[in-house]
Design goal:
alpha+beta, five-stranded mixed beta sheet, 6 helices
Length: 174
């Protein structure tokens, strides 16, 4: 047993004793009742289980939770799909997913949503040219698997959010 303390969606958890081999996915689902993070392949290949890890320097990245031990997240700050909406208000990205029906069965949606959010945050700090946008989105979402083949809808939803606030996410044309 190891003590685990971390921050999830702005709330501190722990210290709590967990088995060393307990996966982060199981910790979220079984200990905390956060069922939005899915268990897909169990091999970090589909990324349905991806959560956002926030670094102290203000950068973020996604990390699979199915093969990562809960204790490997000790001291970290993470966001799950449950942490996106604030006070019942969906984010622009969540609303775009709904408009584009970018969820079909919904199993992979949490991973795509978290990856899309990380991309938006990255582009807000380092905008790209409009000509590079399609490749930037494709590269960001690459690796996430959708059994319903909803890739185009996810891509379009992310693109619409970026284009709706192009001054924030895209380099201004000169």
């Amino acid at each position: 047993m190891t003590k685990l303390s971390l921050t999830i969606n702005g709330r501190a958890y722990g210290p709590v004793d967990v088995r060393d081999e307990l996966s982060m996915n199981d910790f979220l689902r079984e200990y905390l009742g956060m069922t939005g993070t899915k268990f897909g392949c169990g091999a970090a290949q589909c990324l349905s289980c991806a959560v956002i890890v926030d670094e102290p320097d203000g950068t973020s990245y996604t990390s699979p939770t199915c093969i990562a031990s809960a204790v490997s997240f000790d001291g970290k700050t993470i966001r799950t799909v449950e942490g996106h909406a604030k006070e019942g208000e969906l984010t622009a990205l969540q609303k775009a997913f709904i408009r584009h029906f970018a969820f079909q069965c919904g199993y992979c949606t949490a991973g795509f949503l978290n990856e899309g959010q990380v991309l938006l945050e990255r582009l807000a700090k380092a905008p790209v040219r409009r000509a590079d946008l399609e490749n930037t989105i494709a590269e960001a979402l690459d690796g996430h698997l959708c059994r319903c083949t909803g890739y185009i809808k996810y891509h379009e939803a992310v693109r619409d959010v970026i284009l709706a606030d192009s001054g924030r996410y895209l380099v201004a044309n000169r």
